[in-house]
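Data deposition worksheet. Section B asks for the primary sequence of the deposited chain exactly as it was used as input, without tags or linkers unless they were present during the calculation. Section C holds the resulting structure in token form. Section D is free text for depositor observations; keep each observation to a single sentence. Incomplete worksheets are returned to the depositor.
Section A, Depositor: J.P.
Section B:
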Amino acid sequence: MVALFLLRHCLLDKTQANWHNPPHGDFAPNRTYHHVSQGEYSIMPQSVNPQQSIHDALLSTSPTPAPTTPMPIPIRVAFQGERGAFGDEAVRDYFGKQARGEETGLNAQDAQDAQDTQPVPYRSFADVFRAVASGEVEYGLVPVENSQAGSINDVYDLLRQHDLFVVGEIGHPVNHCLLCLPGQQIKDIKRVISHPQALAQSDIYLRDLGVEIVATYDTAGSAKMIREENLQGVAAVAGAGAAEIYELEILAHDIQTIKGNYTRFIVLSREPAPRVDGAAKTMLVMATAHQPGSLHKCLGVLADQNINVLKLESRPSRQRIWEYVFYLDFEGHRDDPPVRTALADLASFTTFCKVLGSFAKNT
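Section C:
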């Protein structure tokens, strides 16, 4: 009995010592040894790789690993300007509300992943449209109007040039500050730089300041320029967030002419927004015959369906001089029966009509 015990342990020790280099004799190189039960081994042909067999045996006795949760892929959103621009703030504001379930302008998956939004800066509005259209980013966010300075014409023109959908909107507060390098005072400032819209929204303050006004491509970009080029005697009109990012001092707060200053941003996508409950808004662009009463007839179609027009904007057609296209915002969704009827009737009074998008109303 003792001899049998010693023999079994001898074989066990000898086998464990030769998993990778089996000895000759009874444990020949053309055999692979598998643990069958405690203290016993079976012999299998060499056609099974020894190391793989051991690996499989270990796996067969190991607990099944718990499924891993895939890492969320950030939603890339293009905006015009540099980090710290109001467009950057609006991206975080809009998609932050999506993540909290306060807004529902995105598809279900993107709304779920909205907390991982990645704002991507672009130099111009045209670059933002191009990035969305080409698939570089999932969404774009651009301003269409300001409560004081009015419409941003470049954006309206780009809406007609690209086959993109408007899928959401947000009204973002715009509070302008005067930023400069640390250590300077108001009396040291000889020039103020910023985006034309920011300069227009702060016109009275800047006029009273009596300095040179120079337009640049962006509010935060102007702050960045002052920091990188160490511009003495120059201040930028930008947000407080830009002052923090570029380590500038704030000489004056809330310099905009109208204190309740808001900019309306729209969200661009390659796909239309899903239909959601609640109030909706539709944007479209149309052209009419250059005849008396043409626009009146189009607006009458909407009035006949009791559709409230929220905004009417005209832009040059760029095809014939002194002819225009019209942008309309009105209440309702394109899938609502009254809106469907109105859109069908508009075909009789327009030479061109394109729905830019229907989405949840937010402004």
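Section D:
The chain has four domains: 2-61, 76-174+262-269, 177-252, 280-360.
The chain is about 30% helix and 30% strand.
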